[in-house]
């Protein structure tokens, strides 16, 4: 899927890219870096047209892995690589950051990602061109505060219960990750997917209820108030008919009944309910 990418040092230095899992954010970052490398080695590039300035360094922080031999966790590896990038940026650098801060708690991760984006914009000695892919939708607010940070999203289309990935980069931020939908696509047991949707609905309701004068406040989700799914018994009622049905079902010996006898008994129970 062809996508236009525009970066410069004066008006659009940092692209904050949001969008669902599996929508193509990481692929967009990788293809941009590869096209820059191909162009600078004199190769043709897969584009209708390309105007690419000189790039002295291509920095990437993509993927997640630990370093067992050195005793470094996934998050420590992520921070080491990101620190190396921040300490070596230049005006002609191209930086690709994918899910910075995901290796730690949500609020620590958002804070680190926010501070890094601010630093890339405000450091005073370099304006490196940056593609910043993230699931932290709170970072969309940076575009309102900083002139050279722009929001983009990888578009999707919802059709009933399905999500169609369009793979198209579009202006504006996204507020949905569709992570539960991706878990369902991966073959997660249905009960887990349904429970995850139930929990998500409660957490989103908490967030909405904590809005103050229309401005959402950053709040830690109150997981203690998440309720277990209610499963009511069909016999938890004072209806005498339910009691009769319960007794009739309890008296059945399904192991000795023939299919015809089962159908006749089912018909009898249905007549009992209709009467």
CATH topology of the largest domain: Rossmann fold
Average pLDDT rating? 82
Architecture of the largest domain in CATH? 3-Layer(aba) Sandwich
Tally of extended strands? 6
What characteristic shape results from the CA principal axes?
Answer: elongated
Q: H/E series, N to C?
A: EHEHEHEHEEHHHH
Radius of gyration using CA atoms only:
27 Å
**Helical proportion, percent range:** 25-40%
Structural class: alpha/beta
Q: Tell me the major beta sheet.
A: 6 strands, mixed
Number of helices: 8
Spans of at least 5 consecutive residues with low confidence: none
Q: First CA to last CA: what distance?
A: 63 Å
CATH superfamily grouping of the largest domain: P-loop containing nucleotide triphosphate hydrolases
Strand order of the largest sheet: 2-3-4-1-5-6
How many structurally independent domains?
3
Portion of residues in beta strands equals 15-25%
CATH class of the largest domain, named: Alpha Beta
Task: Give a concise summary.
By secondary structure, this protein is of the alpha/beta class. The chain has 3 domains: 14-177, Rossmann fold; 189-231, no CATH class; 240-274. Helices cover 38% and strands 15% of the residues.
């Amino acid at each position: 899927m062809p996508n236009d990418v525009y970066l410069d040092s004066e008006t659009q230095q940092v692209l904050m890219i949001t969008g669902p899992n599996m929508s193509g954010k990481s692929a967009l970052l990788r293809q941009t870096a590869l096209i820059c490398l191909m162009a600078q080695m004199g190769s043709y590039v897969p584009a209708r047209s390309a105007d690419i300035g000189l790039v002295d360094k291509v920095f990437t922080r993509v993927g997640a892995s630990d370093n067992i031999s050195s005793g470094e966790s996934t998050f420590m590896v992520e921070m080491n690589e990101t620190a190396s990038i921040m300490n070596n940026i230049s005006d002609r650098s191209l930086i690709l950051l994918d899910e910075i801060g995901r290796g730690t708690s949500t609020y620590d991760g958002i804070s680190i990602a926010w501070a890094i984006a601010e630093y890339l914009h405000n450091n005073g000695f370099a304006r490196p061109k940056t593609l910043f892919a993230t699931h932290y939708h709170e970072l969309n607010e940076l575009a309102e505060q900083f002139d050279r940070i722009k929001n983009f999203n990888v578009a999707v289309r919802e059709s009933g219960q399905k999500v169609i990935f369009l793979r198209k980069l579009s202006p504006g931020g996204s507020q949905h990750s569709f992570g539960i939908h991706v878990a369902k696509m991966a073959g997660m047991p249905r009960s887990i997917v349904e429970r995850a949707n139930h929990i998500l609905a409660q957490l989103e309701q908490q967030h909405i209820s904590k809005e103050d004068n229309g401005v959402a406040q950053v709040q830690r989700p109150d997981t203690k108030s998440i309720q277990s799914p209610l499963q009511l018994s069909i016999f938890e009622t004072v209806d005498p008919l339910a009691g009769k049905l319960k007794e009739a079902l309890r008296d059945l010996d399904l192991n000795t009944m023939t299919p015809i006898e089962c159908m006749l008994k089912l018909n009898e129970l249905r007549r009992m309910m209709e009467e």
